[in-house]
């Protein structure tokens, strides 16, 4: 089944899931959650054209949505504020056997979950075959705006909000640890993510900006991933650690991209992969630098390089053993968040 048809089917199932568990989306976009609302929530964000516009300001405004749910046994008193996790989806959008499944696992640990939809409100189904449909910088803005919003909820501890993301969302989980992005969106607020968890994220064209958060970062990658190869992430982990990043990297042998899905692995011939690329995006100032010779690319040179290095095709599908290991790793990281208390 082609990626677009599969993603459309997932979107239908997601709609059923949201209606059953969270009720209808409220029509008004909100900038704070002081009223303690839950369920489907629309809130303001930005759609920058790239990292430069996100950092400089002036990005077009947008309204996106998320579904906020609490554990069944969560206290409703302000004295018992609990941790929360933002969930950032990948290029295929929200998939019923991934984001909702992880949200349920997290809530069973005692954590509130805020599952973002960066695509639907913008009229996008998927970006796997064309990542230009929504710049990564827009998803980064969405996640940081979600952090800003959750910090105003009377039942959530603003010092214990983490993020977990998958594939493109895994990149979001990583790049929200970079202070230039956080500072650009948070507008003087000191709120920051207390935990970053990235599953099978791409590290072939990484963003690099300092300072780097000292909050724990967990990266779970597939050893057999031919879509976003784990081998490219070693140098990025080294870069993060050299700047004080608290990074734990686990490569799950034999696992493909999307190892936490229920569907068996299959090759998707049309998806875009950056596995043939090797270019850092520095944030201060914004510039592109090649891995091979350190040469800095400008303007049209960047587009020409990307057109030459981007490839098509990648294997996507589940691996029960890798999923079990990932659940164990995520539970360990989230239990650390739960036990951290207010700093």
Automatic annotation (TrEMBL):
MF terms in GO: carboxylic ester hydrolase activity
InterPro entries reported for this sequence: AB_hydrolase_fold, Dienelactn_hydro, FrsA_esterase
Keywords (A to Z) from UniProt: Hydrolase
Superkingdom of source: Bacteria
Matching Pfam families: DLH
Residue ranges constituting the Dienelactone hydrolase domain according to the UniProt record: 82-263
PANTHER family assigned: DIENELACTONE HYDROLASE DOMAIN-CONTAINING PROTEIN-RELATED, POLYKETIDE TRANSFERASE AF380
Protein name (Swiss-Prot/TrEMBL): Dienelactone hydrolase
Species whose genome carries this gene: Oceanibaculum indicum
């Amino acid at each position: 089944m082609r990626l677009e048809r599969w993603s459309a089917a997932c979107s239908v199932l997601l709609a059923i899931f949201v209606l059953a568990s969270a009720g209808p989306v409220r029509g008004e976009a909100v900038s704070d959650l002081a009223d303690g609302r839950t369920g489907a929530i629309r809130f303001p964000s930005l759609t920058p054209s790239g990292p430069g516009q996100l950092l400089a300001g002036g990005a077009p405004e947008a309204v996106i949505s998320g579904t906020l749910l609490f554990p069944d046994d969560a206290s409703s008193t302000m004295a018992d504020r609990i941790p929360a996790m933002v969930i950032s989806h990948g290029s295929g959008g929200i998939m019923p056997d991934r984001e909702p499944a992880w949200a349920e696992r997290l809530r069973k640990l005692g954590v509130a979950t805020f599952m973002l939809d960066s695509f639907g409100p913008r009229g996008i189904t998927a970006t796997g075959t064309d990542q230009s449909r929504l710049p990564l910088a827009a998803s980064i803005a969405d996640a940081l705006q979600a952090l800003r919003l959750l910090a105003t909820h009377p039942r959530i501890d603003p010092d214990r909000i983490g993020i977990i993301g998958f594939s493109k969302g895994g990149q979001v989980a990583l790049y929200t640890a970079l202070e230039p992005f956080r500072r650009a969106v948070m507008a003087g607020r000191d709120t920051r993510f207390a935990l970053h968890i990235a599953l099978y994220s791409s590290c072939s064209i990484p963003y690099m900006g300092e300072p780097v958060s000292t909050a724990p970062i967990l990266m779970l990658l597939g050893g057999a991933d031919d879509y976003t190869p784990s081998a490219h992430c070693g140098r990025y982990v080294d870069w993060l650690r050299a700047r004080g990043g608290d990074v734990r990297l686990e490569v799950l042998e034999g696992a493909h991209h999307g190892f936490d899905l229920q569907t068996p692995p299959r090759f998707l011939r049309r998806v875009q992969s950056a596995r043939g690329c090797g270019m850092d995006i520095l944030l201060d100032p914004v510039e592109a630098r090649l891995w091979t010779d350190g040469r800095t690319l400008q303007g049209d040179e960047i587009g020409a390089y990307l057109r030459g290095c981007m490839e098509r095709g990648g294997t996507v599908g589940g691996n029960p053993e890798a999923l079990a290991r990932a659940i164990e790793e995520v539970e360990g990281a989230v239990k650390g968040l739960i036990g951290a208390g207010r700093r």
